[in-house]
């Protein structure tokens, strides 16, 4: 493994070398030290759900075929899968709840630091939810917040209000026919934990259905609330030019990286760093100014809304610190490697944790409270400035690479680029100029070469006239590779290129952070409704070439449950049960119209998506091209 290429991105390769010269251990070193990884775990065949275990099932059928309690391979694999979905949905849901609580406090006038920035979006949300839009904005916002929080706490058996308001009828009918309509965002997570407890649900089928229900509470609930409310408070993204990769850091400025997921804090850091007093303070320390740059999804949030540059995606978080110029790495929660403090030990960087939910031993903790948002953001920025003189000159190396691109393609922005409705997009799909739409999402995973799958699948698809939309760490990979530049259209097939040139858009569109996968869901729903067909009838597909997080499992599951053919590039831990594999890769299609496929080769992954889209075109439009 030591000699294997670790990244498609030369910047990463270069900085791994620097890390090693500086004596820093990286995620790749630790992956190597973990080899061989547990075969039972890889297959999903180990269970630690009670203290009669841990139990594992012999995948070759020669040894133990049941856990101490009698659980079979399918029971154990499906229970583990459901727990992954529940954990992923919990992360998104808890993020959504935090945004909703801030939103509610803002509407009640209890917070100074937040306001309604997008009044139109507030009214659109309220209208969808059936809330009177004639009253004062604050009254509308209060009612919208109450409805969202009700979806986290209601105890009736009805579908959550947000899913009811946003999902197409055809999907809701499917969900109720198999009893997977989510009733309460938190309840589905709790029930998943209950069912997977020792001695409760042992049937892989009913467990899997609960997994689907939990994921739908995420996609059409927790994540959706996070996206919609963030748009109202911080603005709905519009196309904006920005940059990505470690070259966005500057040696003679104070560099602050915001890393994590929730924009409630990162938005405030951006504001605080623009404050004159802070800039003067930075100058008094010898710096020319202050740079705030993002990392991972909170980076996507501020890049989409303000064009704030992005330092990199998941596998670059440690490497950002090895540049020696990061004065503070400010983290909230999710996808933050605890190793950041070990890396920071070799440099002057302060790792600042800000959420009481995500503490890291060795990090400085400045707890964020929305009531004191501005004050705390300034304190954090001040900490970074004061750390600027502590840099060690001979440890500094900033890679030159930074790529520009246009980001900010919310559904609203896409509709605006199309002249006010989705119809022109639907028309070019019908004409075959654009054959279909693929959503590429998800992470980096050190088990595979960083960014290769993410970038190559996208390139192959656009070359075949498939418009690519995406989120999360995929987006950052795509931006670094130049796919968000207008000139990226040169890589597209003639039909897609013509559309991109006409509209002035790149062939791959950045739709946001991972909670913003809901923008993709809502887009697909809108196209299906405009055509009067089911989502699964559309020439669309999803892919997660380099996924690693439990959140990605929840996302993949809600896409499949929403009728989307979804290809995974890294293998999920389910191969220990042929029944679970059959259900997710075949059986589910008969019900939702979506299914999972696993394919790690980017070219083959793209070929599967192209074939799927061609088939859907024939079924829907009676033609291939
Ligand atoms: O939520 S893509 S590595 S940063 S999990 Fe994490 Fe994966 Fe990146 Fe955003 Ni999404
Ligand atoms: Fe073993 Fe059953 Fe306990 Fe799991 S729940 S550890 S399979 S005894």
Automatic annotation (TrEMBL):
<feature type="binding site">
    <location>
        <position position="297"/>
    </location>
    <ligand>
        <name>[Ni-4Fe-4S] cluster</name>
    </ligand>
</feature>
<dbReference type="InterPro" id="IPR004137">
    <property type="entry name" value="HCP/CODH"/>
</dbReference>
<dbReference type="InterPro" id="IPR010047">
    <property type="entry name" value="CODH"/>
</dbReference>
<feature type="binding site">
    <location>
        <position position="443"/>
    </location>
    <ligand>
        <name>[Ni-4Fe-4S] cluster</name>
    </ligand>
</feature>
<dbReference type="Pfam" id="PF03063">
    <property type="entry name" value="Prismane"/>
</dbReference>
<feature type="binding site">
    <location>
        <position position="473"/>
    </location>
    <ligand>
        <name>[Ni-4Fe-4S] cluster</name>
    </ligand>
</feature>
<feature type="binding site">
    <location>
        <position position="47"/>
    </location>
    <ligand>
        <name>[4Fe-4S] cluster 2</name>
    </ligand>
</feature>
<dbReference type="InterPro" id="IPR011254">
    <property type="entry name" value="Prismane-like_sf"/>
</dbReference>
<keyword id="KW-0533">Nickel</keyword>
<feature type="binding site">
    <location>
        <position position="261"/>
    </location>
    <ligand>
        <name>[Ni-4Fe-4S] cluster</name>
    </ligand>
</feature>
<dbReference type="GO" id="GO:0043885">
    <property type="term" value="F:anaerobic carbon-monoxide dehydrogenase activity"/>
</dbReference>
<feature type="binding site">
    <location>
        <position position="46"/>
    </location>
    <ligand>
        <name>[4Fe-4S] cluster 1</name>
    </ligand>
</feature>
<dbReference type="GO" id="GO:0050418">
    <property type="term" value="F:hydroxylamine reductase activity"/>
</dbReference>
<feature type="binding site">
    <location>
        <position position="50"/>
    </location>
    <ligand>
        <name>[4Fe-4S] cluster 2</name>
    </ligand>
</feature>
<feature type="binding site">
    <location>
        <position position="335"/>
    </location>
    <ligand>
        <name>[Ni-4Fe-4S] cluster</name>
    </ligand>
</feature>
<keyword id="KW-0004">4Fe-4S</keyword>
<dbReference type="GO" id="GO:0042542">
    <property type="term" value="P:response to hydrogen peroxide"/>
</dbReference>
<protein>
    <recommendedName>
        <fullName>Carbon monoxide dehydrogenase</fullName>
        <ecNumber>1.2.7.4</ecNumber>
    </recommendedName>
</protein>
<keyword id="KW-0560">Oxidoreductase</keyword>
<feature type="binding site">
    <location>
        <position position="69"/>
    </location>
    <ligand>
        <name>[4Fe-4S] cluster 2</name>
    </ligand>
</feature>
<dbReference type="InterPro" id="IPR016101">
    <property type="entry name" value="CO_DH_a-bundle"/>
</dbReference>
<feature type="binding site">
    <location>
        <position position="55"/>
    </location>
    <ligand>
        <name>[4Fe-4S] cluster 2</name>
    </ligand>
</feature>
<dbReference type="GO" id="GO:0051539">
    <property type="term" value="F:4 iron, 4 sulfur cluster binding"/>
</dbReference>
<dbReference type="GO" id="GO:0016151">
    <property type="term" value="F:nickel cation binding"/>
</dbReference>
<dbReference type="GO" id="GO:0004601">
    <property type="term" value="F:peroxidase activity"/>
</dbReference>
<dbReference type="InterPro" id="IPR016099">
    <property type="entry name" value="Prismane-like_a/b-sand"/>
</dbReference>
<keyword id="KW-0479">Metal-binding</keyword>
<feature type="binding site">
    <location>
        <position position="38"/>
    </location>
    <ligand>
        <name>[4Fe-4S] cluster 1</name>
    </ligand>
</feature>
<dbReference type="GO" id="GO:0006091">
    <property type="term" value="P:generation of precursor metabolites and energy"/>
</dbReference>
<keyword id="KW-0411">Iron-sulfur</keyword>
<keyword id="KW-0408">Iron</keyword>
<feature type="binding site">
    <location>
        <position position="514"/>
    </location>
    <ligand>
        <name>[Ni-4Fe-4S] cluster</name>
    </ligand>
</feature>
């Amino acid at each position: 493994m030591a000699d294997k290429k670790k990244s498609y991105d030369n910047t990463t390769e270069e900085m791994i070398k620097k890390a090693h010269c500086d004596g820093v251990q990286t995620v790749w070193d630790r992956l190597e030290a973990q080899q061989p990884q547990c075969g039972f775990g890889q297959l999903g065949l180990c269970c630690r759900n009670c203290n009669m275990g841990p139990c594992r099932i012999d995948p070759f059928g020669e040894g133990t075929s049941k856990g101490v309690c009698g659980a079979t391979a399918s029971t154990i694999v499906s229970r583990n899968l459901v727990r992954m979905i529940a954990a992923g949905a919990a992360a998104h849901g808890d993020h959504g709840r935090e945004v909703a609580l801030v939103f509610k406090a803002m509407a009640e006038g209890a917070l100074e630091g937040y306001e309604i920035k997008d009044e139109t979006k507030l009214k659109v949300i309220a209208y969808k939810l059936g809330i009177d839009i004639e009253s004062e904005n604050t009254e509308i916002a209060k009612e919208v917040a109450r409805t969202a929080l009700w979806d986290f706490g209601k105890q009736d058996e009805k579908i959550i209000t947000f899913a009811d308001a946003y999902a197409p009828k055809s999907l809701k009918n499917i969900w109720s026919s198999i009893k997977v309509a989510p009733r309460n965002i938190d309840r589905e997570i709790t029930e998943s934990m209950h069912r997977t407890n020792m001695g409760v649900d042992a049937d892989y089928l009913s467990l899997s259905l609960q997994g689907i229900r939990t994921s739908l509470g995420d996609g059409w609930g927790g994540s959706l609330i996070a996206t919609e409310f963030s748009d109202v408070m911080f603005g709905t993204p519009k196309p904006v030019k920005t940059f990505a990769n470690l070259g966005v850091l500057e040696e003679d400025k104070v560099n602050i990286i915001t890393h994590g997921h929730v924009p409630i804090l990162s938005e405030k850091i951006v504001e605080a760093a623009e404050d004159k007093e802070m800039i003067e303070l930075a100058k008094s320390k010898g710096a020319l100014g202050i740079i705030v740059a993002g990392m991972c999804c909170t980076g996507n949030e501020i890049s989409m809304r303000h064009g704030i540059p992005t330092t990199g995606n998941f596998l670059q978080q440690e490497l950002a610190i090895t540049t020696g110029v990061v004065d503070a790495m400010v983290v909230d929660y999710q996808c933050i490697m605890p190793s950041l403090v070990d890396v920071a030990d070799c440099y002057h960087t302060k790792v600042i944790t800000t959420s009481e939910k995500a503490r890291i031993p060795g990090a400085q903790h400045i707890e964020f409270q929305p009531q004191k948002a501005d004050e705390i953001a300034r304190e954090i920025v001040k900490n970074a400035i004061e750390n600027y003189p502590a840099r060690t000159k001979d440890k500094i190396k900033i890679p030159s690479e930074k790529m520009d691109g246009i980001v900010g393609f919310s559904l609203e922005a896409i509709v605006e680029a199309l002249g006010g409705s989705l119809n022109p997009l639907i028309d070019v799909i019908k004409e075959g100029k654009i054959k279909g739409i693929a959503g590429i999402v998800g992470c980096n995973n050190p088990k595979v070469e960083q960014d290769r799958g993410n970038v190559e699948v996208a390139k192959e698809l656009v070359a075949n006239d498939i418009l690519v939309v995406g989120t999360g760490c995929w987006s950052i990979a795509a931006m670094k590779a130049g796919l968000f530049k207008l000139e990226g259209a040169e890589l597209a097939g003639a039909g897609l290129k013509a559309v991109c040139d006409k509209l002035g858009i790149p062939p791959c569109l950045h739709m946001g952070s991972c909670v913003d996968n809901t923008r993709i869901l809502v887009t697909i729903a809108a196209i299906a409704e405009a055509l009067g067909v089911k989502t699964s009838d559309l020439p669309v597909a999803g892919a997660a070439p380099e996924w690693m997080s439990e959140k990605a499992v929840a996302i993949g599951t809600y896409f499949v449950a929403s009728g989307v053919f979804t290809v995974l590039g890294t293998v999920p831990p389910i191969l220990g049960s042929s029944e679970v594999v059959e259900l997710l890769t075949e059986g589910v299609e008969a019900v939702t119209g979506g299914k999972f496929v696993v394919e790690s080769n980017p070219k083959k992954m793209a070929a599967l998506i192209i074939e799927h889209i061609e088939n859907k075109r024939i079924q829907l439009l009676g033609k291939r091209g």
